[in-house]
Every structure is written in C-alpha cells, then in structure tokens.
Amino acid sequence: MLTGALLILAPLFFGFMVSLTNRRLMTTIHYVVEALVYFILALLGLGLGQMEGLLDQLGTMAGQVTALVVLLLVANLAGLWLFHRWQPMHTDVADAGPRPGYGRLFLAGLKPLMAVLAGVLLGYFLFPELPMVDEVATWALMLLLFLIGLQLRNAGLSLRKLLMNRQGLGIALTLVLSSMVAGLVLIPWLDIPWHQALALASGFGWYSLSGIVIGDALGPAWGGVAFLNDVLREIIALALIPVLIHVRPAMAIGYGGATSMDFTLPVIRSSGGLTCVPVAIASGFLLSFLSPVMMGVFLSLG
Predict the structure, then answer these.
(1) pTM of the model
(2) Which domain holds residue 70?
(3) Total structural domains in the chain?
(4) How far apart are CA 251 and CA 279, in angstroms?
(5) Which of 78, 116, 249, 284 is the most exposed, having the fewest neighbouring CB atoms within 10 Å of its CB?
(6) What is the Rg, in whole angstroms, of the alpha carbon atoms belonging to the chain?
(7) Which class for 125: exposed (0-12), middle (13-18), buried (19 or more C-beta within 10 A)?
C-alpha cells in the first residue's frame, strides 16, 4: 500500500518541478486535463457498474455519503466560523463583479455525476467483465496528477506568496483540521479503521482524485462514496457562497475546498469582490496539494 501511495504522489511532485513558458502548450494541457477528468470518472463508474451486488449496496452507500456530507459540512462550517471570529475578513460589495449564470454553474457541477453514471451503465449492462479497468484508471490518474503539477507550477503563482497569505493559509488549515475531526467522529458510523476514515475526509472537493484513489485502495463502493461526497461539496458550495460571503467570507471560501482556486472561484469573485480572489486561490492551491498527500499517507498506513 505504501508503494502504491508513493507512486500516486510522485507524478504531482515531478510535474511541479517542471517550468514551462509555452502558452500554447499550457492551453493544450488544460484541455487534456479536462478530458482526462471525465475519462477517469467514467472509469470509476465502470468499476462501480461491474461490482457484484451493486443494487444491494446502493442503500448502504447512500447512508455513508449522507453521513460524510452532513458531518463534514457541519464540522467545516463550525471550524471556519471560529476562524472568522479569530481572523475577521471583509469583502467589498462595490468591487463585486457581474453575477455569473448560477443555473449554468449548477449544470456544470452535474457533469461529473453524468460521466460516472454513463460509466455505471456501461459497466452494468455492456462490459460486466471488462479487464484492467483499475489499472487503466490508475495510470490515467498518474498522468492527470503530473499535468496538474505542471499547471500548479506554471499558473503564474508564487508559492512563497501563497504560503504567506495568512487568510488563505488559515482557511486551508482550518478546513483540514475540521475535516480530520469529522473523519474521526465518523469511524463508528462508517465501520472502517481510523486511517481509512481520515483518507475519505481528505478529498476536500477534488472528486476525480478521491474517487479513484479511494476506490483503488478500498474498492469501487468506497470510491463511489468518496466521489459523491466531494462532488456534492462542490455543488453545495455554489449555493452557499453568495449567501455567506458577505457575512462570513472564510466560511464561503473555505467550504469549497480545493475548488476555490478554479470551479467556484468565479462565484467567489462575483459575490465577494477582488479582495477574496487571492485568499481563495491560496486556500484552494494549498488544499489541492495537501489532498493527494494526505490521502496517500493515510491509505499507506493500512
């Protein structure tokens, strides 16, 4: 398990070591990453569809997903509320941008679910015995992590400045600590060892990573639970950000987790103004880096 965890983490760090200046190449990498995400999610669904007794396990999986989503929501928002009390942050309403089309954003948030559903249907009805699905998914994930490492390194962001952003760093660490507390509380409900519960709580909204990594280590059912937990975080964040960002900016930015530097960033910018952008990018960047590291470490303890 330790070797597998290190193999998953290595591409991210190798990618982060490579400096690129060709903008056209970076644009190509962006589209390749997007395509890889949906390919990996379809493979996750395929593995679920091939699982024996899938229909019998759906009720159990629904209960596990509900427990994860609800307890992480409560723990994260409570922790971020306390952080806001300690380090207040203010937004500028006059600086807020035009409101994005929230309907379009919610539909975009549903696309990952559709990719997984398509894979489930293929696995259940057409390819119940298709071999090497897990191996292909693992190699695709390693390529994805390498390319994401490239993107993080070449996004024009200074790692030193990101780490010196006290609000962003504090929000990220608060989300991590509160998620770990929620993971420990969930141990008896999920009926799994503590390190596996903490791995499940370490996705921070990165559903394409958590679904495959957890699924590879704990089986396709747990991979589906991890995926649904993190994709629902993203969808809930889209609803919470406009409501919370002017009264509790840390809660609005932090709950989005790793998505605060990409998918939910336009909503953060339009609702909270430019002052929220560097905080959101710093928080999302750090959580994007911590998520695979923490999942790999926790799963290696098994």
Answers:
(1) 0.83
(2) 2-300
(3) 1
(4) 12
(5) 78
(6) 19
(7) exposed
